Amino acid sequence: xxxxxxxxxxxxxxxxxxxxxxxxxxxxxxxxxxxxxxxxxxxxxxxxxxxxxxxxxxxxxxxxxxxxxxxxxxxxxxxxxxxxxxxxxxxxxxxxxxxxxxxxxxxxxxxxxxxxxxxxxxxxxxxxxxxxxxxxxxxxxxxxxxxxxxxxxxxxxxxxxxxxxxxxxxxxxxxxxxxxxxxxxxxxxxxxxxxxxxxxxxxxxxxxxxxxxxxxxxxxxxxxxxxxxxxxxxxxxxxxxxxxxxxxxxxxxxxxxxxxxxxxxxxxxxxxxxxxxxxxxxxxxxxxxxxxxxxxxxxxxxxxxxxxxxxxxxxxxxxxxxxxxxxxxxxxxxxxxxxxxxxxxxxxxxxxxxxxxxxxxxxxxxxxxxxxxxxxxxxxxxxxxxxxxxxxxxxxxxxxxxxxxx
Length: 406
Prior knowledge:
about 400 residues, alpha/beta, Molybdenum Cofactor Biosythetic Enzyme, Chain A, Alpha-Beta Plaits, Maf protein, 3 domains, 6-stranded mixed sheet, 5-stranded mixed sheet, 14 helices
């Protein structure tokens, strides 16, 4: 049986444009299969009454509330006060935390300011969750049938406390969740392909999550016989996914590509224009990328395409910078950096620069390996950021398919 859970992100900046909440996404992913089902997420400003109302409104409806942010030393950090108010309990200063704060500041050659000592305030009845990456600890308290967890809003601190002190209490239920990761395919295509399986396994046990060229199939099973049902589900859905499947659970697209390149002993170089280096960034975000990735060229101007990648200017004059011949020439130029494999991207990210023949969103991709070559042209939807993200994902997937097919 799963317990309903909710997430509250505290921070006025999250309601504007300064910062995006990512902690809730991490929490949703890590809670999956651990006996919790995230049913609600909300964001509130740095206001004690707003925090209190948000927590109080969840009582009786969920069994777990994770509150992120507002645990710092400044006047607008009021999460402790808001949660205490919602639960009808007090707050007290905890001397060992005071001493730890003072020692931390002294190690930095500073005296702890008086206002910073509020980070040693603990809600009555709360368990302290140590924070090795920062100054404000997390807190956990139980009120009736509801557990409330307070965690810092800084992502690295949030993740550290969550993974070190909470996840070990909530172990993954064996065989309950599997995530099949697909690329180079659209959500509607996946839905059409797996819909016949709903009658067999139940639509309520399958979730499709799409993000600009990437699709996750989340399969869930619970109760007696969950492991057997999950095995049957995985076999059926893997068959339906076919060549679009690049990995399972926490595997990333770039990680799957690098693993296949390692197996073949091939090195990779990239040539990018409209993506501005994001393909290379995704590759180098993976641990061990240096074993495979040698580097790349961001050639935004036509002059640099010729100078650094050896693209014949006559190709640009005849076909335009956004074209199959230029994309293929860019990929060939990347190979000359000393790699066996290359992928190239050239396109029109917008908002301007499009034409009737080549509207905004037009992107040409080319991939080369020792055993083959592929080219694709797309017209991606969305704004500039969306087009670049689409292009990055599809470029990685095009090369993956080329390498696997080789």
